[in-house]
Design goal:
Length: about 200
Amino acid sequence: MRLNISTKIVGNKVILVPYRISHVEKYHKWMEDEDLRLQTASDRLTLHEEYEMQQTWLNDVKKCTFIVLDKETMLETNDEVESMIGDANVYLKDSYDGLVGEIGLMIAEPKFRGKGMGREVALLIMRYAVTAIKVKKFEAIVSLNNENSIKMFNSLNFQEESKSTFFKEITLVRQVDEEFTDYLFSNTKEYNELPTEENK
């Protein structure tokens, strides 16, 4: 998270902010949900372990983590914790043909699902990864049970690279070329990258 530690991205319906200490308790409550852990292939942690994980991510140069805020709630309340609806990550991996970004996201609050917010989050974080980090290829490893995520990535022109029946996962990929970069820009008309305070 070192790369985006002081970066906020404001979109149309959502705002992406760095994962701060103040977010941990609500994030931990989300991850108490067994279905969310299953969909995101996450382990159950204690609250103490969650705080430790936040600090680990904070200092990780290969992990870019944002908390997703509902923009409308944030404008009304100016309260990040109350506005939290999910998270988004890009895990960076070196490859022979450039930097690969493994993208993952969740909309944890049920009432905000099915409203196009996950798609907007994916577009915003990929635009950031392409312009600020120079990612050359995206990879999404998705649970075979998560049909909505698979459909979303397919709609973003990701292609199936592999499928594991043992792990019950599918790997979808998208090469970053001029066409895809233009697509990201044309589908993120409202994109403002701003400075923000870190880790509070």
